[in-house]
Specification:
Layout: H1 4-35, H2 47-124, H3 128-143, E1 147-153, E2 160-167, E3 170-173, E4 196-200, E5 203-212, E6 215-225, H4 231-241, H5 243-267, H6 277-294, E7 298-305, H7 308-315, H8 317-334, E8 340-345, E9 348-354, H9 358-373, E10 377-378, E11 384-385, E12 389-395, H10 402-418, E13 424-426
Parallel strand pairs: 12-13
Antiparallel strand pairs: 1-2, 1-6, 2-3, 4-5, 5-6, 7-9, 7-12, 8-9, 10-11
């Protein structure tokens, strides 16, 4: 409307001016006609006065005619200019629409590129820790949140547990994580929501569940910095710009979580959350082959709980389960990132120590034995009891296979129990 009002004003003004010029021209011409015929051939006395009036009137008529022509020409040009301006505005709007479409398509291409990378990571990587690290980096690059945290269902623990977090340009896992719980969200709300988005102070929080067959196995939490606009405006912007991409990424992460969940159920002992006997055999063979091929040291610890039958008989099997579970927790807390713990039968546990020579392995075993000896365990009935362990240690030799390495460690475990228990006995080289 702001563009039309000036054109309308000048159009009306032009029309008025045209009418004035026409009237003035016609009036002057009429005046000249009336004056000139009065001058007869005999030249009457008043001729000079009439001529003096007729000539200016004639020139006034010509000037009026010129004004009429000029006004018409200007009106035509003004209309052409208005049409050109209108066409220019339409072109500018079209250019703006095309630019907006280009930006939208570019954003979608970036989304699709990120989704392709996420799918590639999920399909090609078997280590869920690596998957989590790479996917969180991809989410940050695409959606640019201030913080991202990944929560998953861990074993028999109640609720979702923090697994990884992206903050300050790096991925943190385990104890290094700063996030310890999902802020201000009730997981029951996921039953009816794909994404929950809320403004909290100077942050916009969004969380999407990782669902597999209607079971919630995890969640991705994102925190965005806000800019002071009303919360409903920021939520609408999130839903328009980020919601779809986040849901599609969450679908891929859900598949990775499902794979991890199924793998965990297949190879992890439910009671201790250590790896099971079947995984023990597979990994022992793999580590032997790796150590032989790369000529690297590798040691095995076999651990047995002393007088465990007496614990079960005295305090009950529920207490025996408590002892096993707490011992397994102690093992996990003392291991390095690349060490692994196993329950290969009953109260018998094992630890694989890659790139570790005998002297170092003995040190690890002694630390664990001392830790257990200094601990007090509480029975299912509330009574305190002490537990000790015996440990056999063996180092891989180039001539070893699964049976010979395991047998050497097992013999040293038997010797530790025979020599009085609560001790570490290393195996001599083969």
């Amino acid at each position: 409307m702001e563009h039309r009002e000036p054109s309308l004003f000048w159009s009306l003004a032009g029309n008025v001016w045209l009418m004035v010029c026409v009237v003035a021209s016609v009036s002057c011409v009429i005046l000249a006609i009336r004056l000139l015929p009065g001058a007869a051939p005999g030249i009457p006395p008043g001729f000079r006065q009439r001529l003096a009036l007729a000539v200016p009137a004639l020139f006034g008529g010509l000037a009026g005619f010129y004004g009429v022509v000029t006004t018409i020409v200007l009106a035509v040009r003004t209309r052409r200019l208005d049409r050109s301006r209108s066409a220019l505005r339409r072109l500018e709007k079209r250019v703006g629409d095309l630019e907006a479409l280009r930006l939208k398509q570019q954003a979608r291409l970036e989304e699709l590129s990120t989704l392709r990378e996420v799918a590639t990571v999920v399909n090609q990587e078997s280590d869920f820790g690596i998957i989590a690290e790479k996917v969180l980096e991809l989410i940050h690059g695409l959606l640019e949140p201030r913080d991202i945290a990944l929560f998953i269902q861990e074993g028999d623990k109640e609720g979702l547990q923090p697994f990884a977090e992206y903050t300050d340009g790096k991925v943190l896992t385990g104890r290094k994580m700063q996030t310890h719980e999902i802020p201000d969200f009730d997981l029951a709300q996921f039953e009816s929501h794909g994404v929950i988005c809320r403004a909290r102070g100077r942050e916009l929080h969004a969380i999407v569940p990782l669902k597999v067959e209607e079971s919630i196995l995890g969640a991705v939490f994102l925190a965005f910095s806000t800019d002071g606009r009303p919360p409903e405006v920021q939520r609408e912007e999130f839903n328009n710009a980020r919601r779809r991409a986040l849901l599609e990424i969450a679908h891929h992460i859900s598949l990775a979580v499902k794979t991890k969940h199924l793998h965990t159920r297949a190879v992890v002992d439910e009671l201790t959350q250590l790896y099971s006997r079947s995984h023990f055999n597979t990994q022992l063979q793999a580590l032997i082959e790796f150590s032989r091929r790369n000529r690297e040291a590798f040691s095995v610890l076999l651990i047995d709980i002393d007088h465990f039958k007496r614990v079960n008989d005295t305090y009950g099997h529920a207490t025996g389960d408590i002892v096993l579970r707490r011992l397994a927790n102690r093992i996990r807390s003392t291991l390095r990132k690349y060490d692994t713990g196993y329950r290969y039968g009953g109260e018998e546990l094992a630890v694989f120590l890659p790139r570790t020579r005998m002297k170092q392995a003995i040190g690890v075993a002694e630390r664990f034995r001392n830790l257990i000896e200094s601990q007090k365990f509480r029975s299912a009935g509330g009574k305190l009891l002490h537990v000790t362990v015996s440990v056999g240690v063996a180092q891989f030799e180039p001539t070893d296979d699964v049976e010979t390495l395991f047998s050497r460690a097992d013999r040293r475990l038997y010797q530790a129990k025979h020599d009085g228990r609560n001790r570490v006995v290393p195996a001599a080289a083969a």
